[in-house]
Every structure is written in C-alpha cells, then in structure tokens.
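Each record in this resource describes a single protein on a pair of labelled lines. The shape at a given residue is found from the number at the same position. The record below illustrates this layout:

***
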Amino acid sequence: MSLPSFLLEILVCPQCHAPLMESSEQGESELRCTGDGCGLIYPVRDEIPVLLVDEARRPS
C-alpha cells in the first residue's frame, strides 16, 4: 500500500531535511531520503512512517 501523495509532498528527512521518496524492499514499504550525503531509509509500519533517525538504516 502506498502513502497518500499529499503526505509524501510534506514529509522530509529529519536528519538533513531533504525530500523523501517511497520505495519497497522485500515487500515492505519504506521511505528513502533523496539527500546526496544522507540517504537514510525509514521504515513504514502499519502504514505509519517512522521518521526517527535511530530507527532508520543506512543504505547498503
């Protein structure tokens, strides 16, 4: 399930304030930071974005 477009327009990375884009890995939805130096990946649990830096993972 994808997040509403109006929500994606206002969400930004809490670390660097770059826009986020929705992606899916292994069937799980997540939000990826589009910032050049950041790139954190935030989980989406039960259709709720978890925008905590401590919960994010670095890209591999």
